[in-house]
Amino acid sequence: MGKYFQPEIETASREQILAIQNEKIVKQVKHVYENVKYYRDLMDQKGVKPEDIQSVDDIKKLPFLTKADLREAYPYGLLGTDLKNCVRIQSTSGTTGKRVVAFYTQKDIDLWEECCARAIVAAGGTNEDVCQVCYGYGLFTGGPGLNGGSHKVGCLTLPMSSGNTDRQIQFMMDLNATILCCTPSYAAYIGETLAEKGYKPSDNKLKAGIFGAEPWTEEMRRSIEQSLGIKAYDIYGLTETSGPGVAFECDAQTGMHINEDHFYAEIIDPDTGEVLPEGSKGELVFTSLDKEGFPLLRYRTRDICVLTREKCPCGRTHVKMSKPMGRSDDMLIIRGVNVFPSQIETVLLNEGYTPNYQIIVDRVNNSDTLDINVEISPEQFSDIVAENQAKERKLEIAMRTMLGIGPKVHLVAPRTIVRSEGKAVRVIDRRKLHD
Ligand code: DLL
């Protein structure tokens, strides 16, 4: 297998990609209008008819869909085809409100798995690789998506699912896994456990990791690359648009190529809904160009990022998205200041701490408080109280510089912050309990 899974598409010229998108969008809008009453009503309310959409330039005329629409339409309201044509559901991992259920026809699954296969090949995967998938299997899209992609590439697939870290390590070492797929927080945990068991990074056969499903910083990437002795690739996606593989990183590691033959991406101002020019930071909106079961048009992801069309040395021509900074709803507003958990992670890793931390936000006497519990490694542990306090103060100063507000930092003993096997829960916002 070469450098690309589907070279003719992945390296197509801009004109070729636009031609594919224009052809698909006309069909898709007509199909949705005829088959999805919920969206037809939204289009009618806006006075838009399928004939008004002749190319992707016209997409901006269409109404948005939001998570609230998906909840309202639950479970069948946005289904794009007869249920008898669907072969699978997947569902969001959300813990609040009603879950979102997405439907797939066999064609949807094939295309989704091809997107994941593109990601695996971009990370250097071939049919000689052993691909260990430790994203969760089941309703979560991570396991099934990468599993399908791995089969399409022809890798020997280890369908581990998440958890049972000792068994993960045993299979990884005994079966010579070369590619690891899981959340970045779980990859960090696996790296930490390998070291605790006395393995050096060079003792495993891993060469690449395909990590996503949660925000992670460049500092976290470097830390995982070192602990596992691999190159770490980012992968992005969401249940609503299929799952992992909507976008994936190549060797350049400077953003993720969006599979533009299947997904049309826009960046909008989250407050006004206005479409922003290339290079602007804003909310990512996706239109699925060929999904049959769950064909969402202009779905607002709430992920904040930037799109760029700069030429990529890997030869892929599809637009690149930056790492999402976290969802707009992950952003904490503390004493009026916007704080992203990723900023805190950057400071901690730059200061030589482990990526094991917890952010606690509360309101005391009508004023917001920000506390950060930071786990120290056994080597950083000190019996001398003053030494620990000095480290805490140093971190507080670095945090204040990064965030613009001062948190209280508490160093906590090794192994006291619970490890994540899936998406890490970094923030506890107790203010919500008072509201
Ligand atoms: O997390 C799908 C996925 C599985 C992606 C495995 C990558 C790997 P959901 O559970 O629906 O789907 O959550 C989607 O997770 O809107 C982002 O906020 C976040 N997210 C996903 N990938 C990344 C990433 C899966 N690479 C939500 N970086 C999205 C940052 C990510 N955030």
Could you describe the 3D structure shown?
It contains 12 helices and 19 strands. The protein is an alpha/beta fold and 435 residues long. Strands 4-3-5-6-7-8-9-13-12-11-10 form an 11-stranded mixed beta sheet. Strands 18-17-16-19 form a 4-stranded mixed beta sheet. It has a two-stranded antiparallel ribbon with strand order 1-2. The chain has 2 domains: 1-328, 3-Layer(aba) Sandwich (Rossmann fold), CATH 3.40.50; 332-434, ANL, C-terminal domain (GMP Synthetase, Chain A, domain 3), CATH 3.30.300. Helix 10 (341-350) packs across helix 11 (385-403). Bound molecules: 5'-O-[hydroxy(phenylacetyl)phosphoryl]adenosine. 5'-O-[hydroxy(phenylacetyl)phosphoryl]adenosine (DLL) binds at residues 92-93, 135, 141-142, 212-215, 234-239, 243-244, 301, 303, 323-324, 327. 5'-O-[hydroxy(phenylacetyl)phosphoryl]adenosine (DLL) is lined by residues 92-93, 135, 141-142, 212-215, 234-239, 243-244, 301, 303, 323-324, 327.
Describe the structure using short key phrases.
single chain; 435 residues; alpha/beta; Rossmann fold; GMP Synthetase, Chain A, domain 3; 11-stranded mixed beta sheet; 4-stranded mixed beta sheet; 12 helices; binds 5'-O-[hydroxy(phenylacetyl)phosphoryl]adenosine
Outline type: globular
Q: Which structural category do the helix and sheet elements fall into?
A: alpha/beta
Q: Assign the CATH superfamily of the largest domain.
A: ANL, N-terminal domain
Q: Which range best describes the helical content: under 10%, 10-25%, 25-40%, 40-55%, 55-70% or over 70%?
A: 25-40%
Number of helices: 12
Write down the domain tally. 2
The CATH first-level class of the largest domain comes to Alpha Beta
- Mean pLDDT across the residues is 95
Q: Tell me which CATH architecture of the largest domain applies here.
A: 3-Layer(aba) Sandwich
* Low-confidence residue ranges: none
Characterize the largest beta sheet: strand count, sense, and whether it forms a barrel: 11 strands, mixed
Based on CA atoms alone, the radius of gyration comes out at 22 Å
